[in-house]
Amino acid sequence: MSNTEAYKGGRPVYIVDGARTPFLKARGKPGPFKAADLAVAAGKALLVRQPFAPETLDEVILGCIIPGPDEANIARVVSLRLGCGKKVPAWTVQRNCGSGMQSVDCAALNIAHGRSELVLAGGTEAMSHAPVLWSEAMVAFLGEWSRARSIPAKLGVLARLRPAHLKPVIGLILGLSDPVVGLSMGETAEELAYRFGISRPQMDAYALESHRRLALAQDEGRLTEIAPLYDSRGNVYERDEGLRRDVDMASLARLKPVFDRPFGNVTAGNSSQITDGAAWLLLASREAVDKYGLKVLGRIVDNEWAGVEPAQMGLGPVHAMAPILKRQGLKTEDIDFWEINEAFAVQVLACMAAWQSADYCRTELGYTAPFGAIDRNRLNVDGGAVALGHPVGCSGARIVLHLLHLLQRNQARRGMASMCIGGGQGGAMLIERGEG
């Protein structure tokens, strides 16, 4: 083993396989699959083709933000349903949008430092199943009602019930807002548009291109990592549902701003979509690769987590990617393909602007010179979350998995996967294509 192959001071870490579900668009009601169902479906498709039994895994790690009330420690629920057995430990991680990538990082660290040999890691989210809650006033009322024993006592409590008690609390809206700075994620995107002077036509043009790229990827059969879903009614789901083939600049221009009415520029059309989906990666040590004769898709080279101003959380990828390039002695042109999760079109455009801004790199990163421009033809080449959706706990695993397939398809060497994270963070992972 050469020192250049080691991960975080330990052993090399390889990704040998992966699978994901199609991303299903939320349609105003709970979708056909819960978060655990999605993870089980993708996991079965992945594990059934392995030369080892599921019980061979050392651990299962799953990222998820909003598991259902009956999916506490959803990783363990999924692990048992996948047939990994009672002896395989499983645990859930949560880093908002970066949860899926966090699970991969946790798995890689455990392998690098000899705690594990073979790990299933990924992310899942059923955003359409996000809870609708009662207000604190209603919870207090229900508590009083449960304590009232006699009919007169219950009538007295009932007399205090008011229509306002019945107003629901939408968990998804709260979850996509930052309580520290009091901004929704969309409002932070508007902040970036103002800071970098990014116009509505620029955002819409980026969104349109995301749809066009996903359409071409589907038509050419590029998304080979997708495992179909089957629901209890016999329906089959084979493709990401967020794609709009009929979208054009005129239709995008007609959409009204969502987060800063009426003056803003961020719309439903140039934002990522509310979506359900799951993705897994299978990570292994060299010992496990050799023992089971596994084919290596790629190697994890480096990883970084960064914090940024929560009001401008979309710039997180810049702060996560930059230290990796510096540590590895690489330049922008040394990266063959990039995946930056498209939380918002303007967010990716802002990252690209900051990346090549001398002022930003000097004042925010402390670097004497900016990075070279990221070639748009090497960024999100098969479309991104604006077109296919962003199931928050899953996306970090999805972009790493797709990047591996992209490198394989193009016989390329290096890829960088990165994403912004609600609350003011960024995550990035540098991978190299395997030869095994």
Which descriptors apply to this entry?
single chain, 436 residues, alpha+beta, Peroxisomal Thiolase, Chain A, domain 1, ten-stranded mixed β-sheet, two-stranded antiparallel sheet, globular
- Identify low-pLDDT runs: none
Please report the total strand number as a whole number: 16
CATH top level of one domain? Alpha Beta
Task: Provide the β-strand percentage band.
Answer: 15-25%
Query: How many distinct helices?
Result: 15
Please give the alpha-carbon distance between the first and last residues. 15 Å
Estimate the helix proportion, in percent. 25-40%
Tell me the major beta sheet: 10 strands, mixed
General form: globular
For the record, the CATH architecture of one domain stands as: 3-Layer(aba) Sandwich
What is the CATH superfamily classification of one domain? Thiolase/Chalcone synthase
What Rg, in angstroms, do the CA atoms define? Answer: 22 Å
Q: What structural class is derived from the secondary structure elements?
A: alpha+beta
The CATH topology of one domain corresponds to Peroxisomal Thiolase, Chain A, domain 1
Average pLDDT works out at 94
Structure characterization notes:
The protein has 436 residues and is an alpha+beta fold. The protein has a domain of 173 residues: Thiolase/Chalcone synthase (Peroxisomal Thiolase, Chain A, domain 1), CATH 3.40.47.10. Helix content is 35%, strand content 18%. It contains 15 helices and 16 strands. Strands 1, 2, 3, 4, 5, 12, 13, 14, 15 and 16 form a ten-stranded mixed β-sheet that branches. Strands 6-7 form a two-stranded antiparallel ribbon. α1 crosses α2, α3 packs across α15 and α7 packs across α12. The longest helix has 20 residues. It is globular and about 75 Å long. It starts with 13 loop residues before the first strand and ends with a strand. The mean pLDDT is 94.
